């Protein structure tokens, strides 16, 4: 099975939209390689939970990163694609429109142990009766989800051709340190015009926008098991301290402590 077909084949055999229950769940374990699911959409909203490893979700104009113990919420009818890291253990939760008071836009949610256990339980009973203990737990889950804190783990990916050139270069080489002046020269525009363009298209200053991409790359690599030292080098930081400072400024805690905190919410090794 190819990298691109694993998630696709699993979901081709799992049809959530015809199911009129308020919420259904699916567990997916990705072995050995990254796995991708091309752009698609559902009538139901979708919550993508990363229990181990990480997931990147793309929606029009934005890329969302889902580190361990987090989930991305994708409202119904929103086109999106998913990419899971090697050896990721993820859960797809499909929610009937209006069944939970969730945002009408995509966002990353921090998932607490109670919500995580409810999702895992639901995935073990995909055909649960509409009345009974599991249906009551599903109702509790739908009440708890809207309380999950929203995390700012996204990266604007506008389609403007000049910004796409910068995005593609940074994605191919996250250690790229081309300055704003150098980019402006390459794109045949002034540095001030470039700054205004990026601000208008992304809602962020150029430096902040580039840093947000590096943060998402860092989260993905750390979720895959890379060390802090390796990630700092991959991103082109002059020192590990400089990388840790960036990470702490963005997420409020150093990377080692951030992932240690996620592991504290862990209940043990993933089931096979």
From TrEMBL:
<dbReference type="InterPro" id="IPR018060">
    <property type="entry name" value="HTH_AraC"/>
</dbReference>
<dbReference type="GO" id="GO:0003700">
    <property type="term" value="F:DNA-binding transcription factor activity"/>
</dbReference>
<dbReference type="InterPro" id="IPR011051">
    <property type="entry name" value="RmlC_Cupin_sf"/>
</dbReference>
<feature type="domain" description="HTH araC/xylS-type">
    <location>
        <begin position="164"/>
        <end position="261"/>
    </location>
</feature>
<dbReference type="Pfam" id="PF12833">
    <property type="entry name" value="HTH_18"/>
</dbReference>
<keyword id="KW-0804">Transcription</keyword>
<keyword id="KW-0805">Transcription regulation</keyword>
<keyword id="KW-0238">DNA-binding</keyword>
<dbReference type="InterPro" id="IPR014710">
    <property type="entry name" value="RmlC-like_jellyroll"/>
</dbReference>
<dbReference type="GO" id="GO:0043565">
    <property type="term" value="F:sequence-specific DNA binding"/>
</dbReference>
<dbReference type="InterPro" id="IPR009057">
    <property type="entry name" value="Homeodomain-like_sf"/>
</dbReference>
<keyword id="KW-0678">Repressor</keyword>
<protein>
    <submittedName>
        <fullName>Transcriptional regulator, AraC family</fullName>
    </submittedName>
</protein>
